[in-house]
Amino acid sequence: MILIELIELLHKAQIQAGPSAPVLLCFEPGAMENGYDEKVTEGISDVRLVDDWPLPGESLVTHESDKPKKLVLFYDNHYNLDSSLTPPSVVSQ
Hints:
It is built from 3 helices and 3 strands. By secondary structure, it is an alpha+beta fold. The protein has a domain at 32-83. Strands 1-2-3 form a 3-stranded antiparallel beta sheet. 0% of the residues are buried. The model has no long low-confidence stretch (mean pLDDT 83).
């Protein structure tokens, strides 16, 4: 997926769900196999632009053009990210 595709999808989501809708990450194959369950979702912990370049730093010998960037979404358990959230109770069987 490229950035403009994500922006367009997020714009549609904002119109349909509103700007305060929570954003969660879910592993698609697991949801397809077991059904969606919020207990196994993750929250976004950081969004970063990173250089898509194999070598760190800048060359002092060769002039380099702008390094290409990638947008990276980092995630963590969303209940660890926001202490105001409490995980859904687990039903014991």
